[in-house]
Design a protein that fits this description.
globular; D-amino Acid Aminotransferase, Chain A, domain 2; ten-stranded mixed β-sheet; binds 2-OXO-4-methylpentanoic acid; D-amino Acid Aminotransferase, Chain A, domain 1; about 350 residues; alpha+beta
Length: about 350
């Protein structure tokens, strides 16, 4: 143990109030949270406290200029009841890549991981055992200087809190290709970083998509509105004539950890996999030729979410029923199987939660 994480335990656990068979996504929070403050160039006072509100100054810079980044990760229980993480180091690295893009300090990987282990070990009873459910973990960092000049903040707060979740999309999602708005995610922009503002920019188009009866937007490139990028909440895959195709990481797309895992799984199993530009014209031609076999999204929250239909302009492409989705179903089973320990992890992606001896106060 390198960091002296102090633990103040809650006086009264809320665990018995939770109905684990009916958990809405993102509304139930576990008993504790990890907090550290960046001050004078170093991370100070790492601590685990009862989950709860804290106050910030009205001029806190994150509220004004958006220096705010986050990660989404999950802990699950193996079928034997052991708490496990999925690729925690990769999340730590992506978090720091986001931090650098937003001119924020790194959180040392060792601190990020030690905090995770200590927090999840303490709240491991909050990991739902049900298949398809997990403990969602939300690490985030925000600028905390009390100042309204535009410059990088000098003070930051890093927090990790968790909450049990069921599936993000309990049923297949419908998408509408966005031909008016763009994500902030053009090349050279912030698309490959997990920054709060990217999600804020997706809200208006997502609301308009909802008003038209669709669940989410499918973003197109900002230059020509021609190439598919990702969905508001996840990366996107297509199966075209038996080949798995996903947009290549071009600096404007979030390098999804579930995306990366699915690509590795398909490649190992010998499927044809292509990371490349995919135009909406190609999708429509494949659909007309009966060759658009499947479409699905991938993400930590979504895991693998089948796409039911995609609207582009006036055209609606209805995709085959889920029973016919061989590859999307396989991707979902593989990821869930690894997370439950039912499929052997040959990649070193699954990391058991360690019991870290933190200091009780
Ligand atoms: C995740 O998949 O963890 C995300 O951060 C996306 C968000 C829609 C919940």
């Amino acid at each position: 143990m390198k960091y002296n994480i102090k633990i103040t335990k809650t006086q009264k656990s809320r665990l018995s109030e939770v109905d684990f068979d009916n958990i809405p996504f993102g509304r139930v929070f576990s008993d504790h949270m990890f907090v550290a403050d960046y001050h004078n160039g170093e991370w100070t006072n790492p601590r685990i406290e009862p989950f709860g509100r804290f106050s910030i100054h009205p001029a806190a810079m994150a509220l004004h200029y958006g220096q705010s980044i986050f990660e989404g990760m999950k802990a699950s229980k193996s079928f034997e009841g052991k708490p496990l993480f999925f690729r925690p180091e990769m999340h730590a690295r992506r978090f720091n890549n986001s931090a650098r893009r937003m001119c924020m300090p790194d959180v040392p990987e060792a601190l990020f991981l030690e905090a995770l282990h200590a927090l999840i070990a303490l709240d491991s009873e909050w990991i739902p055992p049900q298949e398809g459910s997990a403990l969602y973990i939300r690490p985030y960092m925000f600028a905390n200087d009390e100042f309204i000049g535009v410059k990088p903040s000098e003070n930051y707060r890093f927090i990790i809190f968790t909450g049990p979740v069921g599936p993000y999309y309990p049923k297949p999602v419908s998408l509408i290709a966005e031909q008016e708005y763009v994500r902030c995610a053009i090349q050279g922009g912030t698309g490959e970083a997990k920054v709060a503002g990217n999600y804020a920019a997706s809200l208006l188009p997502a609301r308009k998509a909802n008003e038209k009866g669709y669940d989410q937007v499918m973003w197109l490139d900002a230059n020509e509105f021609k190439y598919v990028q990702e969905v508001g909440t996840m990366n996107i895959f297509f199966v075209i004539d038996g080949t798995v195709v996903t947009p290549s990481l071009n600096g404007g797309i979030l390098p999804g950890i579930t995306r990366d895992s699915i690509l590795a799984i398909f490649r190992e199993k010998g499927y044809r996999v292509e990371e490349r530009d995919i135009s909406i014209d190609e999708l429509m031609e494949a659909y007309d030729a009966g060759k658009l076999d499947e479409a699905f999204g991938s993400g930590t929250a979504a895991v693998v979410a089948h796409v039911s239909k995609i609207a582009i302009g006036g055209k609606v492409m209805e995709l085959p029923p889920v029973e016919k989705r061989k590859l999307g179903e396989m991707a979902k089973m593989e990821i869930n199987g690894l997370r439950s320990g039912k499929i052997e992890d040959t990649h070193g992606w699954i990391v058991p939660v360690k019991h870290i001896e933190a200091v009780n106060v």
